[in-house]
Amino acid sequence: MLFIIIVGTSSACSFNSNSKNNNNSTKDTSFNTQSVANKNDASDIVFRDTKGKEISLSSLKGKVVFINFWATWCPPCKREIPSINQLKKSFEGNDNIVFLMVDVDKNLTKSSKYMKNHDYDLSVYAAQSQIPPTFLENAIPTTVIIDKSGKMVGRVEGAADYSAPQVHKKLEDLIQNS
Fold this sequence. Notes:
Strand order of the largest sheet: 4-3-7-6-5-9-10
Oligomer: single chain
Strand content: 15-25%
């Protein structure tokens, strides 16, 4: 299944263990399965939530997984969070999709406080295992979509508007058809 969402403009923050510099370049971004379909390295990634509970992507097989890598210091990350929150609300009560907001700084106290202060219904996680470069390279926000079989079927590097109806439709199609 081809999963493409064109987002007119995008910006991202440079990310690596030594820098927190902003990169506000404008570019097109898309979920495109043609570029990621053969890069199925999702099964061993483990995340921890604010209560210390660990969850692996392999344990989520059978569900569509929306993963957003972000940080509280990243302006483009903060700009797209309201649309992610709206998208998640549109799937309220649907147990076939999971939203993971992964704080790249692993500061769950700070990131959960940020979510609470803005009334977002998004749980935060920290990676407990290495994130493959096919998921996260050098920029945040980065969003990855995993289908029900555990394969990465979409990736967007840079901010996007996830509240668009076509995004909901594409995720609904993955829930129904993968």
